[in-house]
Amino acid sequence: YVDEVYQSSVAQGGSGVFDTERVEVLKGPQGGLYGRNTSGGVIRQLTRRAELNNQDGYVSAAIGSWSERLWQGGVNQPLGDSAAVRVSGRVQRSDDAWQTSLATGRPHGEKDLWDLRSWWLVEPSERSRIEVKVYGGQNQSELALARAVGLYDADGGYCAAVLAGRRDDENCLSYAGLIARMNGEPDEVPFPAIQKRNGATSLSNAINRFDNRQFGSTLMVTHQIDDSVLGSIQLQAITNYEKFDFGLTFDYDGSSAELGHQITMSAIETLSQELRLSSSGSDAMRWQTGLLVSRDEFIQDGQYLLGDNTPIGLVHGQLDYTQVTRSRALYAQTEYSLTDRWSVNAALRYTSESKTYRDGRVSAPAFPPPYDVVVDDLNGDYKLKSRWSGGGGVNWQINEQTLWYATVSEGFKSGGFFGGFIFEREEFAPYKEETVWAYESGIKTQQFDNRLRLNAAAFYYDYRDVQGFVNVETSPGSGTSLILERLATLGDAEHSGIDIDLVWLASARVSLTAAVGYLDATITGHAGTTLNTPGDVVSTEGRRAYAPQWSGALGAAYARSVSESYRLQTGFSWHYRTDFSGSLTSKVDKAVKSLDGYGLLNGYVTLNRLNGGLSLSLWGKNLSNTVYSPRKTYDSLGSYVEIMGQPRSWGVQARYEW
Prior knowledge:
Blueprint: E1 20-27, E2 41-47, E3 56-64, E4 68-78, E5 83-93, E6 99-101, E7 106-108, E8 112-125, E9 128-139, E10 147-148, H1 160-163, H2 175-182, E11 201-202, E12 209-210, E13 212-227, E14 231-251, E15 261-279, E16 285-305, E17 316-337, E18 342-363, E19 373-383, E20 388-399, E21 402-413, E22 434-447, E23 452-473, E24 483-504, E25 510-525, E26 529-531, E27 537-539, E28 542-543, E29 550-561, E30 566-577, H3 587-593, E31 598-609, E32 613-621, E33 631-634, E34 640-643, E35 649-657
Parallel strand pairs: 6-11
Antiparallel strand pairs: 1-2, 3-4, 3-35, 4-5, 5-8, 6-7, 8-9, 9-13, 10-34, 12-14, 13-14, 14-15, 15-16, 16-17, 17-18, 18-19, 18-20, 20-21, 21-22, 22-23, 23-24, 24-25, 25-28, 25-29, 26-27, 29-30, 30-31, 31-32, 32-35, 33-34
């Protein structure tokens, strides 16, 4: 949620995070106000709005590794006694990059984006407030190049190392290298080991980039009402319109050849209207209720280019469809103080959601009619079945320093239609919504004159119909079948674990932080099937991918005054996660899909004026220059690649506030 508006597509997360008032993370399934598609939790970003009584602002300029420059600024300006405006923006550019494409010999990864936002405020009376946000931006930055992985021998089978469960990029061919051998060009594509292990050089074609454009506006009208029965209540209307054009080009084969190039241009248009009614929050009972209506339209124009992929025989794939989601919801939530120490809370939400998939078509434009049409006239409808969500909890203020709480909640993530390529009409069917019951209990305490803060929680999540990706064979037994990735239902799952975080103000100058988390995330029942890398049919049951069992962080900060006007601050943080591969059902999977754990060390030094003015900062990321891969992926056609994390980087920033 950005400024109380739900983001209907993950692509919208690419919009600028700048001039932010605060970011909130709400753990666990949510009902009530934030109950749409929140089976795991909610992230709220609240930007800084216009204020009547403040005339302030800031500008900052930063330069860092690979000639990266970042300019940001914001200013709040009153416009008389009852109006004000806040304007902010950022521009990010670079002329260099940390990666080099061996296919072109040029650096790749340059940044090129901008964002602009304005908040307008009018207060026609003491009880009424009108706010308008207008925003837009563009991102044409280059994306990281994938690093090709070797797993084949010259005969087309898996190489000996991969069959033994380990990587050997010096002696195993990538899919591109195998195709070159098959075409009698043994030196056309070298072994993957020619690439640097940290991904600084890549055999990939230098096409990876964004092409995003965004424009939108939000209208917020707030009015205070005094009611003889309900007391002081607030009525708020929130209207949002956004148009987001998402463009992505990506080389999934990690070579100079055209074996699997994705080109996506998606038009996303959203319109939502919400009405909220809430109490003033000063009584023993605090409540909020509301109504939300929204419409999201997603128009897909996707292409897949594989002109050099001779074994496949398909030169160019085209995917087109329109999907419209209509959502309507009623919600209510309340908190009631039973005594000075005990309180209870509850939330309930009813959601009615439907999706229509229209004019779906997969074609092969390079082929003559009628062979240019793979499947067309795909139309389908989906309606949410699990319409109720919500939960309740109890809080016990043991003493002034310690709070104990327990919650039970239910959430959902709606189903729908897979937005990828479909080769047979039988494959076209909606997947189910995901539902979860969550149980959590924890304690929050502050001790030693509030110099030590400890939060600890234990949780258990019981999922039904978990959504995820599986591998399926198209046209099995036909001799021309493909193994493709599909979004489907994996089965039921159980998540259990603990979260502990600690903040210790050791002295007036030193603060220490620590956090640890344990997670056991497993598909446990009603499991489906998938194909592993060797093509064996295996169960989806087992450990979930991208769910490290252990994660944690350590931090230290030091601050001291260096004069009457300036203060010096320095700090370091280290974040770690154990391996997060998920269930690996063969030695081949272990060799090419394992995601090892890693830790990242960051640090900063800042000299700032105590009462505003000029500040200077020096920061570093991945100071230990750790080589790590946060993701491995494949194109479903034979190529396996890994995305490498950025190596050590640094930057300096000057900021002036008034």
